Amino acid sequence: ILNVEQSPQSLHVQEGDSTNFTCSFPSSNFYALHWYRWETAKSPEALFVMTLNGDEKKKGRISATLNTKEGYSYLYIKGSQPEDSATYLCAFSNQAGTALIFGKGTTLSVSS
Amino acid sequence: DAGVIQSPRHEVTEMGQEVTLRCKPISGHNSLFWYRQTMMRGLELLIYFNNNVPIDDSGMPEDRFSAKMPNASFSTLKIQPSEPRDSAVYFCASKRGNQPQHFGDGTRLSIL
Question: What is the bridge-based pairing of β-strands A106-111 and A10-14?
């Protein structure tokens, strides 16, 4: 059974804090790792797709890294803002054309 | 461009009734996914289609659930008969090739 674990389950930070969370996935037969941002009452939106070991992606204040050999990815948010409050999902696939396996997400709350 | 369109947005019905959820994927996308979101299990894959063909339905909870994709622009998820434990938010997503999935806004289903 393929399992994707995310930690922490939730966290609360103050505006301006930088934060990061982890996604762990099976390190064998890796194909791609996706990060999604899911705001309350909306649908998940894709942030990054990473396929190569050592990949680093950046979008504004949000960045992600990938280590396929040890099976983890980090998502970083620099200078958190209240609008960053959302659930961040990671999803893993082990071959092209197959469905993604989602973690349960990390719910971030940023207070001003 | 129109995103993934799901209908209805909300459905409230009595136990035992048939429920049909509908999804129109993004034009040109060749894969379609049905997910169920619950507090306990997070985002669970129910079934997915590649080029209108069901590939993996191992996530479909039981025989009361069925899904069809008669053409590239339409899919249905049917529950018959419905039970209170089927209450959840059901998401449809589509993608093209190895691109990220695009999610619909979901159908919030309540079975009384």
Answer: parallel
CA distances for A27 relative to A23, A35, A49, A69, A94, angstroms? 12, 17, 16, 6, 9
**Are A104 and B42 an interchain contact pair (Cβ–Cβ within 8 Å)?**
yes
Residues A44, B103: C-beta atoms closer than 8 Å? yes
What letter represents residue A39's amino acid? E
CB contacts of B51 in chain A (<8 Å) are none
**Which pLDDT belongs to residue A40?**
87
Which position has the higher pLDDT, B22 or A2?
B22
Output the pLDDT for position B19.
97
SS3 for chain A, per residue?
CCCCEEECCEEEEECCCCEEEEEECCCCCCCEEEEEEECCCCCCEEEEEECCCCCEEEECCEEEEEECCCCEEEEEECCCCHHHCEEEEEEEECCCCCCCEECCCEEEEEEC
Residues of A in contact with B48 (CB under 8 A): 99
pLDDT above 90 covers a percentage of chain B that reads 84
A45, A99, A105: residue with CB nearest B45: A99
- Closest Cα to residue B95, out of A49, A27, A68? A49
